[in-house]
Amino acid sequence: MLPLNKNSILSHLNSPVSIQVFDKIDSTNTFLKQNFTDFSSESPSLVVANSQSAGYGKFKRTFFSPNSGVYFSILLPHRLVKNPNLLTLAAGVAVCSVLKKIISSGNFSLKWVNDILIDGLKCGGILAENISDDKGNSAFIIGIGVNINVKQFPDELIGIASNISQSEKFNRNFFIAEVINLFLELLSGNQQIIPQFRLLCSTFGHRVEVVNGKQIVVGQAVDVDDSGALIVIDDKKNHHLFNSGEVSKISI
């Protein structure tokens, strides 16, 4: 596996982005949350790590982050984000599209709202967070993690998680830069996020259970609306919209 390299990432980027690269870190999202006022309030900033000791995802669940994966977080000033509701979807489209471009044989798709799948199993995830301090500073952080060449998953992830098996020549620097390039292009409005997400999402057409707090709905996942909310039609033909929630497919 080619080593992470700041200059290599910079050489593939289409726009100015400040970068810090770590061999080991607790969490790239945590680092940015703790230090976000030290970064530019005018342009994106990127933190990349070879491994994470305390990576986390939705609902603060542990995100398994062994050596050799791709773990990075991008800090975005609020002024660069026109529609915060679409941040996670845009990141998913960027990651999945670049993986398909680099690894044409891979069966990649997206599970609403923040999972990256290969052959139906989770190989990566996305976490968007909105942060602020008592001085009025604020920003968005989007964390992205992708499993590559994982030799052994913890027992609790077997049958749920998978990884991308790639040769030692897989260029993580190019992958990270291409994801950032497409992500920023999507956010700029030059490409439509929702139509591309619809093409990549494998949740639609399946019977699902959605848990959102105390609300539990079982029905058919049919689409997302223009805000990125999941549309589920229950057995009584009632339509439900979810801006967040835990989605599980139900075998028939």
Automatic annotation (TrEMBL):
<dbReference type="InterPro" id="IPR003142">
    <property type="entry name" value="BPL_C"/>
</dbReference>
<protein>
    <recommendedName>
        <fullName>biotin--[biotin carboxyl-carrier protein] ligase</fullName>
        <ecNumber>6.3.4.15</ecNumber>
    </recommendedName>
</protein>
<dbReference type="InterPro" id="IPR045864">
    <property type="entry name" value="aa-tRNA-synth_II/BPL/LPL"/>
</dbReference>
<dbReference type="InterPro" id="IPR004143">
    <property type="entry name" value="BPL_LPL_catalytic"/>
</dbReference>
<feature type="domain" description="BPL/LPL catalytic">
    <location>
        <begin position="3"/>
        <end position="191"/>
    </location>
</feature>
<keyword id="KW-0436">Ligase</keyword>
<dbReference type="InterPro" id="IPR008988">
    <property type="entry name" value="Transcriptional_repressor_C"/>
</dbReference>
<keyword id="KW-0547">Nucleotide-binding</keyword>
<dbReference type="Pfam" id="PF02237">
    <property type="entry name" value="BPL_C"/>
</dbReference>
<keyword id="KW-0067">ATP-binding</keyword>
<dbReference type="GO" id="GO:0005524">
    <property type="term" value="F:ATP binding"/>
</dbReference>
<dbReference type="GO" id="GO:0004077">
    <property type="term" value="F:biotin--[biotin carboxyl-carrier protein] ligase activity"/>
</dbReference>
<dbReference type="InterPro" id="IPR004408">
    <property type="entry name" value="Biotin_CoA_COase_ligase"/>
</dbReference>
<dbReference type="GO" id="GO:0016740">
    <property type="term" value="F:transferase activity"/>
</dbReference>
<keyword id="KW-0092">Biotin</keyword>
<dbReference type="GO" id="GO:0009249">
    <property type="term" value="P:protein lipoylation"/>
</dbReference>
<dbReference type="Pfam" id="PF03099">
    <property type="entry name" value="BPL_LplA_LipB"/>
</dbReference>
<dbReference type="GO" id="GO:0005737">
    <property type="term" value="C:cytoplasm"/>
</dbReference>
